[in-house]
Fold these 2 entries.
Entry 1:
Amino acid sequence: MTERGDDRLLLVKDLCKSYGGLNALAGVCLDVRLGEVHAVVGENGAGKSTLMKILGGAIRRDSGTVFFKGHEVEFHTPHDSIRAGISVIHQELSVLPKMSIIENIYMGRMPSVMGGVPWKRLEKRTIELLGQVGLDINPHLQMNDLSISQRQLVEIAKALSKDSSLIIMDEPNSSLSEHETDTLFALIRSLKERGVSVVYVSHKIEEVLRISDRVTAFKDGAYVGTVESASATVDDIIRMMIGRELTREYVPNSSHGPVLLKVKGLSGGGFEDVSFELGRGEVLCFAGLVGAGRSETMRALFGADPIRAGEIEFEGRRTRFSSPKQALQNGFAMVQEDRKRLSLFMNLDIMANIGMAQLPRIRRGLAVDRARLRELSQRFFAALSIKARSAYQAVRDLSGGNQQKVVLARWLATNPKILILDEPTHGIDIGAKSEIYDLIRRLAGEGVSIILISSELPEVIAMADRAVVMHEGRVAATLPRGEITEHTIMSYATGNIGGKPR
Amino acid sequence: MGAKVERGIEDGPGNLRGALSRLFQVREMGVFIALVVLVCLMSFASPYFLRPLNLFNITRGMSNIGIMSIGITMVIITGGIDLSVGSLLAVSGMLTARLMYGGMMPWLAVACGLGLGLGFGLVNGLIITKVKVTPFITTLGMLSIGRGLSYVFATGLQGAVASNIPMRDPGVNFLGGGYIGPVPFPVVEMVALVLAFSWFLGNTVLGRQIYAVGSNEDAARLSGVNVDRVKIFSYATTGILCGLAGIMSGGLLSTAATNAGEGNELDVIAAVVIGGTSLAGGEGSIIGAVIGAAIMAVIRNAFVMLHLPVFLQTISIGVVIILAVAFDSLRRGKRR
């Protein structure tokens, strides 16, 4: 079959890929025009990331055809794909942690002048690239020293440096703050003006509609349809993705109890003088920009990082945990933000992952009580509707949303009094997201106190009984329910009002 | 299921079916078949190979490596490495012999030898976890220290260099040289320890935490695992097992030698790796390591039985190490 010389840059037809009997792609189609921003949406395991990996040459297709610039292509390695003019920014970042930003951007295609690397020239070029993505940082910094969102922006800068004709962004803004997202969008628009096509994979439908020309939806590895963004509504897209509508409105929480946790003047690495109170069965949201010190505060509270000063009163007693183990024994649980790095045991099975925090409490003599462990993990497997072949599957084979559910299950299994959730819906699809929201409400109803760190304003607005807004490591405001609006949160989070002067 | 997954929590060798399914899991099956093939080939090549005496010689010969590989498997699963095992074997055996020679009650001397192995292992663990020196460097240093100390125990700080100290006590020597019926006692010890520690790794909280630490150390800590304790335990256990191996090897030869166990660290690591344990941590099994040790022992025996040149033996063991890991890597590659 030959294609006409039309304005299509990329045409994907009936692409299939299966992993050990499980179909990741079962006939997926996609066409991208020149200079178009084309969004791809879909639930957990809909096949978006798999398609992007095939296009990026990271994995091989089983069947189907791909046309790029009018020619049929098959990429065997990432290098093939890059040479053809495709850059993929993968969801799971592929950075060299101990090397500088410059080296990360130019790795694999370092120029050499008389056998040496022209560092000055690369430095200058890197600063320009970083400027384009709105980063004003030293290009000699190691990737290690950057926050997740900064690393993401560096990856985007790297894609820019390749002068590709198609840039694929897989969940590019899952860890970006609203402000950084705006910068990213401005950048995408300027790419478009230069005739570069962008495939934008995301769960954030409002933003997808804002930035894209057309939207293609996948479901269960198959093509559902493509619509013009200008004429589509959020509900249209959601219906395409999951075939049901979502309500995301705040439900008043009447089960507020007395104060369970009092934090006074807590200081440590990245946060200063943080005070707040948490009631039994309350959902307390921590809002703010990425890097405002919210995760750092909670990690210190949980005993994972040292505390420099301040007091913690839990159930009326002064406490301070020197290790996560102690926090766990006292009824604290914390779902970390970076689930791959800080939460999951990739090569262990789902059951081991769910049971890990509970092992010392489910034993008979020396041995782990297998019957109880199986019962425990099966219960959460079902309760959180984790999609997998069985509880014996390795978590590395699960999609992001299901991995997150496994992490949640681990902590729910500990029966916590206080559950700290750090960006629990980060990078997962809308279906799994609403399940997690329902779960949070149900837990609060059962008297579990919840601290929810979230950079997504709609999430804060839908979930928070009260909200603490942080700015540059300090509490800028504590907002009662009535004052939680996008406007107030953003004003405090960006330091435009409030915030203690230094 | 093609994927290689750690699932020891569910089907450890707690019941017969579990034991069988564990034995036939993908991981150990490959090396096990390799061992069976090797044994079959040898039984055709030499009529003496399958005789009980020869088989017991092979298993007795590998028992030291087998016992030390139990500890080092745990260390490697946590993501660490222990290069000091051969030296710990020598220094523990030497201390035991020296104390016995000096008139100490034999079993008390044995306790001191085991205690020294344990002490060295604990120090390894403490330096690695508390001072945060990498395992490679810590145990490389300990390799030197242990070996040097075995000379000190043999000779004292002055005087003529002694390289052997006699070790003569029927009871203690039984550990390394005794027989129960036709079965060498070291083989009994090895089998018992392998079974006990396999059960331990698969079924106890600490055993499972060893896998968790190697799989993702940060996640383990944040899930309430005392990571330092898990690591120290692994190194300390390796230390005491090396101590036992040292006393056994002294017992077998009725003498403790300063050069005992020299180069054993590489044999032990090779056994573990042939058995399918990844040096990256998070996966592996003791059964696999022992099968790996058996493969090496059979190859060594084959060269003796078939009167082949010794240097070819070394080469073929090298080939086996690379082949084993290459097969493993190819099998994994299919997942992509």
Entry 2:
Amino acid sequence: MDHVLTWMTFLPLLGAAVVLCLPSRSPRLIKRVAFAATLPTFALGVRLFAAFDRATTAYQYVDRVPWIASYAIDYFVGVDGISITMVLLTALLCPLCVLASFGIDKGVKGYFALFLMLETGMLGVFVALDFFLFYVFWEVMLLPMYFLIGVWGGPRREYAAIKFFLYTFAGSVLMLIAMLVLYFGATPHTFAIPELAPGGAAFDPRTQHLLWLALFVAFAIKIPAFPFHTWLPDAHVEAPTAISVILAGVLLKMGTYGILRINYGILPAATFDLAFWALAALGTFNIVYGALCALAQSDLKRLVAYSSISHMGYVMLGMAAFTPQGLNGAVLQMFNHGTITAMLFLLVGVIYDRAHHRDIAGFGGLAAPMPVYTAITGLAFFAAMGLPGLSAFISEVLVLLGSWRAHPRLTIVAASAIVLTAGYLLWTLQRVWLGRLDERYAGLPDVGAGELATLLPLAAIVLVLGVYPHAVLDLIGASLGHLNELVRAGAAAGPALR
Amino acid sequence: MDLGNAASVAYSAPELILIGAAIGIVAADPVVRAKEQLGAAALLACAAALIAAIGIRLPFSERWLVQGLLRGGEGWLWSRMVVVDGFAVFFKLVFALAAFATVWMSLGSAEVQDSGEEGEYYALVLAATVGLFYMAAAANLLMAYLALELVSLTSYVLTGYRRHDRRAGEAALKYLIYGGVASAVMVYGMSWLYGLAGSFQYRAIHDALAHGAAAPLTVFVAVVLVLAGFGFKIAAVPFHMWAPDVYEGAPIPVTAFLSVGSKAAGFAILIRLFYPGLSEPGAGGAWTTLAGLDWPTLMLVVSMATMTLGNLGALGQRNLKRLLAYSSIAHAGYLLMGFVVLDDAGLRAMLFYVVTYYLMNFGAFAVVMVVANATGREDMDGYRGLAWRGGAVPAVAMAIFLFSLAGIPPLAGFVGKFYLFAAVVEQRFYVLALVGFANTLVALYYYLRIVRTMFLDRPRGDEGVVALDAHNAFLLYFLAVPTIGLGLYWAPVMALAERSVRFFLG
């Protein structure tokens, strides 16, 4: 498996090039080629999952070649337990999203070419170990996303696309400045994240904190953490279904991934100083705020969008605990949220395709005409609620267990918020799927084979990880333990500004 | 080393080619019916000047027919009026490329063709290019002034080329008046420098001032006066007011030429006077200003003001040429970031940025011309749904150029900005860096507005169909492919820029 990460990352781009060469009058061919182009990456991902060494904390499958030697910029990729989880999530969701996009009928060629470019950008972010390369991929991803929302989105797509672009770009700008300061602070100058790792300590505490905050804002916009979250409901609601899935399933994880990789890895002392307010307190606020907002929504897709804000709050809370349970729970929650929210958005897409609206009050009793659909929805909703036996239960319990030792009061608030989560989910389930059937929707067809093909793999993962979370926990355990020690050691050695 | 007059001729091959071609075109104009042939001749002249600037070596011998970049020769030409060194040659390459693209664009421009006066037009473009070449190479205030005026005078005429268009007349007149005032102030400042140092030679001025020939404040006033002329050429605040009107009124190829060639030459002349002229090179690529001359602080303020006012001005524009004019003002501000850090890293970032700026700004104007050719429109509404009404290639190319101007990877403009910001952060100009970053965000907004109009808006049907002919398509590819390519691998160009930050000091 030479250069496996490079192949995984750039095969979709190759697929995009092929798609661009196909004649635009044969959309079926384009869709099939696009689907085929995501499969090799997925297959390599499965092999990677099998072959990954779970005992070591070192980066694996490393490719490193000088890119711009005069500036010490390398093409440097590799994975550890944290990033491989995200790589797998991306490689899994992309083929499903291509399947879910088969209904696209305008500008088919452009859509699928952009989608494949997006996949390359996302994978690149997760495998990059050179900060410059990371930044390039981080930005590259913006362009296809902008067009995918802006051209193929809903009625307010232009506003949503521009808002998304400007918010993320504003964050990137802060990231770039911090990146340059870190580069010039390291001797010898380097962008390689593993070599920058001890470099953060070279700065005085005040600079470390400023750098940390600059990076944090860049990533918090992506998570998205209050008060940087307002782009998310707009982008989610206007984006086509598959793009919402990618947004919630993968893009949001880049925020928390970035914090773990860059903030934790390079500035451990500052991380320890600032984690309580920036991560734990803000995360808890996100949990409650997102749930309350979700309760107030009348649009089904908006509700799911706000539930994402709430669920990403658990990730932040778990990360801030600096205990093995907390960190493991956080990363597991990232993976679980990726699969569950993907299901939720796909399910919203199913009903939107049939009824052409998403107004919660406009439905009722859908269980009668669509039993299979309702069963899968029930599974996804209960999973999102954190019901025992389903995947999110494990990760949320780990987060709460982990943070109990560190931040007991916040943990109580976060745990109580589960009531709110259950509230908006059950209430929605009752209003849309149960109750009296609306006459207009009596004849709706149940989910078809194509839709099942996108939903069932995710449902299976939710079930399996609910009883056997070690499939993921084994992957991430060693790396997270190492990271936790790094932060604690950095906090002990580094001068705190308290 | 003082190269003699004979060697000076050999080193002046690029300029001689251009002058010869300009004269030849004027002479041939009355007899040649097919005016495209004159354009083709001008193209050939630009290509020949480019090759001559790189250098020609006689086959099977060690002798150099034309000495240029490859030979790496350095020295004074024409009794120390002109200098040849890496820095000059680098800019000559950029100018030759800019002139080539200008002529190529003109050959495909509806505004320029079929006026019956193309002969003069091409000759003027070549003459202006000669001026640009000497702006980069002047080592003497007098020569600098002559070169700058040669560029200015030809530009006034080129701006007013469409004589029957009121906008063109207004633009040319405004340009002339602003330019005249700026030149006058500059010449006044030069006379002070001459009076203080007793010479027009940069080196002699440098030596005299270094030995305390004048009070620093006096020198500073003289320098500020000279800056009026240079600032006018690069369109830096507060000498930027002419740019939007002139860019709007001039034929689009001329606008592109002014926004790239003329601006780059302004930077060349600025760097040559302020770095080897008024500063002292030190170890590790650092420079120190002559005692008491704090021009970096002044230029720091100018840089921040230029980028901010340029970007804010662009926000409300509906005419693409005006919008790009404001954007090019902002880019002068970005370029000045490399100017104030007093370090070779800043200078090579500027040189690299000039190359990327050439690609993306010329590209953007080329698309504006393609659209104007087909529909006669330059306003934002004329771009509505461009991608969906036959203009897919121009629209995609425009998106590439605009994203590059905005500084988004993996495009050349990002790399250019990266090096500029890196130089600024390295020297710890954090306030400047923050202002610069805030500006890129503002800029992204208006670039995105154009992209949105082209892709996200649907055509209403009254915009007209945009067709792309092979001639203009070549230009778009010629500029767009390197814009992407330099974003992915830029080491050779950066190495060239690095080698070109080399001034011959005698």
